[in-house]
Design a protein that fits this description.
This protein is an alpha/beta fold. Helices cover 27% and strands 14% of the residues. It is globular, with a radius of gyration of 14 Å.
Length: 124
């Protein structure tokens, strides 16, 4: 069954370098592409706005990631809440999300463990 998956940008898809675009977090883009191939819908769920949001969207577009929504769920008509309805959220600030540290940087999502979770839930 197709799922809607909200994914944060900084510290989740790319390393923390805001307002710049950091290096890709290993496994992020590959996992997102695999999720899309399995007919899941990706919503970019980020604090970025204005030009920095455009930069993030352009980055993902160039990487071949087709977004279902950007900071919103286009099918969410039952509520005017700014919170996008998703079945799953992947975010470096989410409680329980597996994290790694690279040198002295802030923690970022550890995608190999996220992939294990997604496989165990039948999403990959």
């Amino acid at each position: 069954m197709s799922q809607i998956i909200g994914i944060d940008f900084d510290g989740t898809i790319v390393e923390h370098m805001y307002p710049e675009i950091g290096n890709p977090v290993p496994g992020a883009l590959e996992t997102m592409k695999d999720l899309i191939q399995q007919d899941h819908k990706i919503i970019l769920w980020t604090m970025r706005s204005g030009n920095t949001l455009k930069d993030a969207v352009d980055y993902l577009t160039a990487a071949g990631i087709e977004l279902y929504g950007i900071n919103m769920n286009p099918d969410q008509h039952w509520s005017t809440s700014p919170k996008a309805y998703c079945h799953v959220y992947i975010d470096d600030a989410a409680l329980g999300c597996p994290l790694i540290r690279k040198f002295d940087q802030r923690p970022m999502v550890y995608w190999p463990k996220v992939r294990e979770f997604l496989k165990a839930k039948g999403l990959l």
